[in-house]
Amino acid sequence: MTPPLPHAYGSAHSPAKDPRTAESAVLARITARLHTAAARGRDGFPQLAVALNDNRRFWTAAAADLADDGNGLPADLRAGMISLAGFVLAHSSRVLAGEAAAEPLIEVNRAVIHGLSAQALAA
Fold this sequence. Notes:
The chain has 123 residues and is mainly alpha-helical. It has one domain. 73% of the residues lie in helices and 0% in strands. The chain is built from five helices and no strands.
């Protein structure tokens, strides 16, 4: 996966962290920001927009990595995750337009964080 920009996400990389742990840490930070901003309602919309943009960047990078022939995940998992990325990108647009809530994005991210954490523990 493309490394996140340090100024956007903070330092999520460490030599001791494997890629899945680093991805989980970045996604957890974004998810916390989405949750906090969404909980503030209209007052949190500027922060929500920034968090949505970072979430989109994460999922776009993830989709590109998943689409790469060198990705070692099973094809069916890769396809499912790419489909999930498509949902995240489309739903983010609806949230920005005021047509949908951010909660489904938060839930998707939390499920992926859980999956990445379980995968890291099994490794």
